[in-house]
Design a protein that fits this description.
four-stranded mixed sheet; alpha/beta; Rossmann fold; 5 domains; Signal recognition particle alu RNA binding heterodimer, srp9/1; 681 residues
Length: 681
């Protein structure tokens, strides 16, 4: 029992977050402040008393005797050694009085006034009244000044605000489980959790690590795309660690004053050392940790000074005291190499997009407090949201709950979840946008062209939904597809089929209407991106072979590819891209011409129904291929499915957008959509 108590990291540690618990230093400061205020009060009281005393009413004792002898005095009052003299002759409407200091004893004064008609009074001094008056005159201003001084001192020094605290750290401190988040609340990032659990265990039980000679890592860098849970993991560490946890953003170090950032870094580490063992979390560290190379925006004196101070502090503290630095960023490529070396950030923890299993676990975590009915299949939703991050999935669960309430249900159904996926990916339905009959026909043929080309290709993903209902994110219609299983690689044939599928909508427009529209703008953009990646990054070009012609920048953000070749080679790359797209376009037109009847029949049915499922689409396609008439009720069609198309048929599941990724990359969701022209938005 004693050993357990001694191993607690916060044993006998004063609560440093309580401003009223600062030890002897605070007491000395308070006493000094009170004495200063007392001195100020005495000086002010003396000054005010001197200013308020009427010197013109004071007379000398000789003058008083002269007035007595000349019978000019009406009344004399003696109190506390002061004579108050009331003259007989008043010069104004007010009763004028004179003050005289008593220069002889009371008996002598009484004898001097005997025989005159002067009224003489002797009043006992009010000692208590004088004492109280004096105390009030001194203590009241002193107390008021003291509290005002303490108030302004706290305001200036609290949290780095005000002039006195401009160089103070603005770190927000969390103690123990104040965040309310633990590792149980984090799902889909098992490797990252394992790495951080080791760190937390080191803080709790340092003995079993130091016995073998292990040292606590100085820092851990959380790297990954936005929304994957980097900040959530840091808060979970705060909830598990049972040690003080300082959290702040990298931008809070930066000010317009040069040197403030460095001062805040020093102050932060001083506070952390006082509270050790503890954890310091710096979110968006790229704000202060950018490379000093001008390529990444170097040359900022304030930021460089802040970075230099951070480097010096990370080298200066002793890890045996249990001080750990956590940082998060989605731009690791811009960080200074000196910051990333072992001895500063010893661990780089990748917090990447979750896989299928991870998405299922994330959905379960976010759905634990949501009422679900028996129809909910979270695995189907996870399969339909390939490439989604934790924040996306949390938003989908929340949108589904809102939809259920909107529709008057007390529990979330699978239909709500499916619709929430569409809301997050392509937006809500635009009920106020009415397309003309010609536009509806064009959009219908465009989308059916996508779906039909994909259905006719062996390496394409199965079609799950076709709709021509406009959406708020700019889509006049879209085709959604879902993979049959989680994939991490794409073959060359799959990428080629993807290109043909992208261009199927444009091909249908040209075949049917003998013209093209602006609706294929997004399709062309996506197709060009895939074709260029095949040639420059994936080595799928006969002309260039295995030559790497482009590199990826901002891996966790835009993922934009930058060419690493000369101008002549870039021109040749453009020709290769054009040839590849031309071949894919011609292939799409060939497939659609060979199945023109199916294109017309499915497009006509889509115009009438506006939305059809993948199962309905395959039923119509099968019936047309067999020469059957298309009834209004598709249930009347036979259920036999030919072998050549059976692979494309699935039960209705949540829709998902086609993938456009290459080898060794996580699939990303992309909608095949009709883009609204610029004049319509």
């Amino acid at each position: 029992m004693n050993n357990q108590m001694d191993n607690r990291p916060d044993r006998n540690r004063p609560n440093r977050n309580n401003p009223d618990n600062q030890g002897p230093n605070k007491n000395r400061q308070s006493i000094l402040a009170f004495l200063i205020c007392l001195l100020i009060s005495l000086v002010c009281l003396s000054f005010v008393t001197d200013m308020m005393s009427d010197k013109s009413s004071e007379i000398t004792y000789d003058k008083f005797i002269e007035m007595v002898e000349k019978d000019q005095i009406k009344e004399v009052t003696l109190q506390s050694g002061i004579l108050t003299v009331v003259p007989k002759i008043q010069k104004s409407y007010q009763n004028a009085t004179y003050k005289v200091n008593q220069m002889e004893d009371a008996d002598a004064l009484t004898k001097r006034l005997e025989g005159t008609d002067i009224i003489f009074h002797y009043e006992q001094p009010d000692a208590m009244g004088e004492f109280v008056s004096t105390m009030i005159g001194i203590l009241l201003p002193t107390v008021v000044l003291f509290f005002m001084l303490m108030f302004f001192m706290r305001r200036m020094n609290k949290g780095g605000s005000g002039i006195m605290g401009v160089g103070k750290s603005r770190a927000k401190a969390y103690i123990q489980k104040e965040t309310g988040i633990t590792f149980k609340d984090v799902a889909g990032q098992e490797e990252a959790k394992e790495s951080l659990q080791e760190v937390v265990d080191f803080l709790h039980n340092p003995g079993k690590y130091t016995e073998i000679g292990a040292k606590l890592p100085k820092g851990a860098l959380l790297v990954g795309p936005p929304g994957t849970g980097k900040t959530l993991l840091a808060k979970a560490v705060a909830g598990e660690a049972n040690v003080p946890f300082f959290s702040l953003s990298g931008s809070e170090f930066v000010e317009m004053f040069v040197g403030v950032g460095a001062s805040r870094v020093r102050d932060l580490f001083e506070e952390a050392k006082k509270n050790a063992p503890c954890i310091v979390f710096i979110d968006e560290i790229d704000a202060i940790g950018k490379s000093r190379d001008s390529r990444y925006g170097g040359g900022n004196d304030e930021r460089e000074q802040t970075l230099n101070q951070l480097l010096a502090e990370m080298d200066g503290f002793d890890t045996s005291k249990g001080l750990l630095i956590l940082a998060a960023t989605n731009r690791p490529e811009v960080l200074d190499p000196a910051l990333l070396r072992p001895g500063r950030f010893d661990r780089r923890i990748i917090v990447d997009r979750p896989d299928l299993k991870g998405r299922v676990e994330i959905l379960k975590v976010h759905a634990k407090d949501v009422m679900l009915d028996e129809t909910v299949d979270l695995e189907a939703i996870a399969l339909a949201t390939s490439g989604a991050v934790g924040s996306d999935l949390a938003n989908m669960i929340n949108e589904a709950a809102i939809l259920a309430v909107k529709n008057g249900r007390r529990a979330v159904s699978q239909k709500d979840l499916q619709e929430s996926v569409e809301v997050v990916l392509v937006g809500k339905e635009k009920k106020d946008r009415i397309l003309s009959s010609q536009e509806r026909k064009i959009v219908s043929y465009h989308e059916v062209g996508h779906a039909l080309v994909n259905a006719l290709q062996k390496d394409a993903e199965p079609v799950q939904k076709i709709t021509i209902v406009p959406r708020t994110m700019g889509a006049l219609g879209y085709v959604m597809q879902v993979p049959e299983e989680e994939k991490y690689l794409n073959t060359q044939k799959e990428l080629e089929a993807m290109l043909v599928g992208y261009l199927g909508g444009r091909a249908a427009e040209e075949i049917v209407f003998d013209t093209v529209t602006t609706g294929a703008a997004n399709d062309i953009e996506q197709a060009t991106k895939v074709a260029r990646a095949m040639i420059t990054q994936y080595g799928m070009s006969q002309k260039f072979g295995l030559m790497g012609l482009a590199s990826q920048e901002n891996q966790y953000l835009s993922g934009r590819a930058v060419l690493n070749c000369g101008d002549d080679t870039a021109t040749e790359i453009d020709h290769e891209v054009m040839q590849l797209l031309h071949y894919s376009y011609e292939e799409a037109k060939r497939l659609l011409r060979e199945h023109r009847e199916a294109l017309d029949k499915i497009a006509g049915y889509l115009i009438r129904r506006e939305t059809i499922t993948g199962k309905e689409f395959m039923k119509i396609f099968r019936a047309v291929e067999k020469g059957l008439e298309i009834p209004e009720n598709l249930e009347e069609l036979p259920d036999e499915i030919p072998a050549e198309v059976s692979e494309k048929v699935q039960s209705e599941t949540p829709a998902e957008e086609t993938e456009t990724v290459s080898e060794a990359e996580q699939p990303e969701t992309q909608a095949e959509e009709m883009e609204i022209s610029h004049t319509e938005e």
